[in-house]
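Progress note, sequence design subtask.
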C-alpha cells in the first residue's frame, strides 16, 4: 500500500476562554510526516501536541494555516461523512476506557473499521493476532480486558480501517510503566506492517527515542526543534530540548533504553 504525506503548514489553533480572551494553543507550526516514517511529537503537558493531533484528524479547526494529506486538505469533521481519502488518517486516543463502546463486543467494534476499509482489511481474528490478543477476544466486552489490552483493541480497530497515517495521541500515558515501551513498539510495528506512517505523541522522550525515526519538540504551542532522533538526543540545540532530556531519569546509572532493539 502506498502511503501519503502529511504536510502541516503554518497551522494556528485558538481556543476562546470566556472572560479571558483567546488562548493560542498551536502557534504557527509547520512540519511533515513522510510515507513510511515514524515521527515522535514530544513536549510537556499543555504544550499543544494533543491539539495538533486533533487538528490533523479534523477534530479541531484551524484558525489559519493548512493541513494536507496526500495533497488533499484536511477539513474539520462535520455531520456529513468525510471523504474516504481522509478516513485513511486514524487516531488511537489516550484513554482506551473512553474510546471503546462498553456495550458492544470487541469483534463488532473492529468490524466497524473493516467496513470502512475500501481496500479490504484482514479478518477480525487476524487483526487481533497482530496486536497479540487471542481470537476469542472478539466475543468479549471491553470491561473484560486490562487497560493495556483495551489499547491493543483500539489499535486493531484503527488498523482495520486501512490507514495510511496512524496517530497515537498519548496512547501509553494511562498504562503502567512496564507496559508503555512494549505498546509503543507494538504500535510502530503494526503501523509499518500495515503500510502506514506513524505520528506518535507523548511526553515520554525515553520511549519515543526507541521507536521514532524523527523527533519534533513542542513548547508553548511552537515547534522548537525538529530532526533525526539520534541528532536530537546527542546534540540538542534548543535549551528547552536540553531541559527535557536532562529530566529523563537514569536507571542505576546505566542510562536509558538503547535506540533500537526489543524491549522485554
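Output:
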Amino acid at each position: 500500500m502506498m502511503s501519503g504525506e502529511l504536510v502541516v503548514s503554518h497551522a494556528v489553533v485558538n481556543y476562546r476562554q470566556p472572560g479571558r480572551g483567546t488562548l493560542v494553543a498551536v502557534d504557527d507550526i509547520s512540519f511533515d510526516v513522510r510515507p513510511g516514517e515514524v515521527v515522535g511529537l514530544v513536549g510537556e503537558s499543555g504544550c499543544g501536541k494533543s491539539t495538533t493531533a486533533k487538528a490533523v484528524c479534523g477534530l479541531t479547526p484551524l484558525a489559519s494555516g493548512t493541513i494536507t494529506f496526500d495533497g488533499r486538505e484536511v477539513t474539520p469533521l462535520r455531520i456529513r461523512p468525510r471523504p474516504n481519502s481522509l478516513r485513511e488518517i486514524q487516531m488511537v486516543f489516550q484513554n482506551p476506557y473512553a474510546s471503546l463502546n462498553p456495550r458492544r463486543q470487541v469483534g463488532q467494534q473492529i468490524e466497524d473499521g473493516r467496513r470502512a476499509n475500501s481496500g479490504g482489511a484482514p479478518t477480525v481474528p487476524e487483526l487481533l493476532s497482530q496486536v497479540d490478543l487471542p481470537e476469542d477476544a472478539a466475543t468479549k466486552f471491553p470491561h473484560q480486558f486490562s487497560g493495556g489490552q483495551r489499547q491493543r483493541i483500539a489499535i486493531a480497530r484503527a488498523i482495520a480501517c486501512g490507514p495510511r497515517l496512524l496517530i497515537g495521541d498519548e496512547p501509553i500515558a494511562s498504562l503502567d510503566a512496564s507496559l508503555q515501551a512494549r505498546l509503543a513498539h507494538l504500535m510502530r510495528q503494526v503501523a509499518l506492517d500495515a503500510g502506514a506512517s506513524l505520528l506518535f505523541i507523548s511526553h515520554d522522550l525515553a520511549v519515543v527515542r526507541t521507536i521514532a525515526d524523527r523527533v519534533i519538540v513542542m513548547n508553548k504551542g511552537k515547534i522548537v526543534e525538529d530532526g533525526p532522533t539520534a541528532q536530537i538526543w546527542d546534540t540538542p540545540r534548543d535549551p528547552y530540548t536540553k531541559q527535557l532530556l536532562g529530566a529523563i531519569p537514569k536507571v542505576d546509572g546505566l542510562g536509558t533504553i538503547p535506540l533500537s532493539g526489543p524491549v522485554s
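Residues 85 and 143 are 33 Å apart (CA to CA). Work on this subtask will continue into the next period as scheduled.
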